[in-house]
Amino acid sequence: MPTTQPILLAFFNFSGWELAIILVLGLLIFGRRLPELGRSVGKTIVEFKKGLADVQTEVRDASNQANGAQSNSGSTALPPGSAPGANQAQDTTNPYAQGQYRPPHS
C-alpha cells in the first residue's frame, strides 16, 4: 500500500519561479492593504515586547521581594560585642555560600 507522505512533500516543493509568481499574485490581491497590514503587525510586535518586558519586571520584582523577605527573616539579634559570622567558618570555595552569586539578567 503506497504512503501519501512523498506526494505531500512533492506538493510543497516550490522552485524560485513558482514562489515569485505566488508573491506577485499575493501583491496584486493584498497590495492596497499591505501598509495597513504592516502597521498592524508592527503594533502587535511592539505590544508583545512591552508585555514581555512587563512580565520580566514583575518576575524580577517578585524575586527581589522574596530575597529581601528571606534575608530579613534570617537575621537574628546578636548579643552586644559579637561580630556577625565570627563563630561560623566560611566556605571560600563555594561562591553561593558567600552570597556572591547573582543570576544573569536577560
Question: What is the element layout, followed by pairings?
Answer:
Elements: H1 5-11, H2 16-30, H3 34-74
Helix-strand topology string: HHH
Cα end-to-end separation: 53 Å
* Helix content range: 55-70%
Number of DSSP strand runs: 0
Structure write-up:
This protein has a domain at 34-69. Helices cover 59% and strands 0% of the residues. It has helices at 5-11, 16-30, 34-74.
Key terms:
106 residues; mainly alpha; 59% helix; elongated
Question: Could you give a short description of this structure?
Answer:
The chain is 59% helix and 0% strand. It is mainly alpha-helical.
